[in-house]
Amino acid sequence: MAASAASLERDIFVMQQLREGHTHLFGELLERHRLPVFHFLYRMVQNQSVAEELAQEVFLRVYRSRANYEPSAKFTTWLFRIAMNLALNWVRDNRHELGQGSLDEEQPDGKLRQISDHRPDIEQYLVHQVKMSDVRDAIGKLPEKQRAAVLMHKYQEMEYSQIAAVLGCSESAVKSLLFRAYESLRARLAQYAG
Amino acid sequence: MLDDGITCPLQSRENADLWLDYAARRLSPPQARALDEHVAVCPSCQRFRQQQEMLWDTLDTWQSGNFQPGFALRLQERIEAEERRPAWERTATWFEDVKLKPALPVAAAILIIVLGLQFFQFFKSTKLTPEGAEPETVVETTEAAR
């Protein structure tokens, strides 16, 4: 998520415009940030519909807070802090549901899982599914902060400073979290190391 | 310090960051070159790099999903519904959003302590006043008699 300076300034400008009542600009913020927020939430809660519901809540909160928004931090940092808090609350309340995906669950692309009768494809498909499920489980088993740090570092490509601001810790603490997290992941996913 | 110019990232705390940046493909060209030169002569780092690359590829298999159609429309409806709510309800929601929930038990405990102290003070003063007033009355009576 290597956002350009122009888009960062634009986010702040849009929030200031929202504060002054130009609510039609909210769609622009939504368009720019909904996918990264949704992807982060999807991987945090590991459930398509919950991630979507939480993403709605994130943007609803942004909209509600427009009058009090102060550009003291990057907009995306603030946005991801809201997303992370909502995700962590959900995870704490629904610990048992994390990583309970089944073959009946909808695919990330919204289609139901379909297995064709073409044998090599089935094999490839199943191998891929098992690997994905192992990755999901391994990440799901990380402590909350490590999991959030990995998702922001690996999948959202956020800077250490930004991850630190979202998690409310120092950059060196973020690096320590990431070291420990990747170490655990290397151990848990060792079967895929060749 | 090794022959290649950098201290082994697996041995040194400050260079250990290089592996995080390497994994995230964020090394600058000079850093990448220095790391490559080191890895060429360091079997531990060769193994580590191989493991790290495998891990990265494995993590890449987990693709995220996409929104169901109508996400923006549903959000728009929720915003409109919220706009129609009375102001006090919106304020209550704002209080929920700013996470006052964890502070409520603490606030309740402080309130109980303050009320308890007030009650104790009140009880103490009402109990002492008649006894304390008695000698003064006696003095006044004596002075009046003179």
Contiguous uncertain segments of 5+ residues of chain B = none
Q: How much of the residues of chain B is beta strand, in percent?
A: under 5%
Query: What is the assembly state of the chains in this entry?
Result: heterodimer
The whole-angstrom Rg of chain A is 18 Å
Percentage of residues in DSSP E strands of chain A: under 5%
Determine the number of helices of chain A (DSSP H or I, runs of at least 4 residues). Answer: 8
Largest interface here, residues on each chain?
A: A-B, 46 and 34 residues
Q: What is the chain-wise order of helices and strands of chain B?
A: HHHHHH
Largest sheet of chain A: none
Distance between the termini of chain A: 30 Å
* Mass-distribution shape of chain B: elongated
Structural class of chain B: mainly alpha
Overall residue-averaged pLDDT value of chain B: 76
Helix % of chain B is over 70%
Helices and strands of chain A: which structural class?
A: mainly alpha
- Helix content percent band of chain A: 55-70%
Task: Count every beta strand of chain A, where a strand is a DSSP E run of 2 or more residues.
Answer: 0
Rg on CA atoms of chain B, Å: 37 Å
Overall description:
The complex is a heterodimer of chains A (194) and B (146). Chain A has 194 residues and is an all-alpha fold. Chain A has 8 helices and no strands. Chain A has helices at residues 5-19, 26-45, 48-64, 75-93, 119-140, 144-155, 160-167, 171-188. The radius of gyration of chain A is 18 Å and the shape is globular. In chain A, 35% of the residues are buried. Chain B is built from 6 helices and no strands. Chain B is elongated and about 85 Å long. The model of chain B has no long low-confidence stretch (mean pLDDT 76). The A-B interface holds A 26-27, 30, 34-35, 38-39, 42-43, 48, 51-52, 55-56, 59-61, 63-65, 85, 106-110, 128, 131-132, 135-136, 139, 153-155, 157, 175, 178-179, 182, 185-186, 189, 192-194 and B 16-17, 20, 23-24, 50-52, 54-59, 61-68, 71-72, 74-75, 78-79, 82, 90, 93-94, 97, 99.
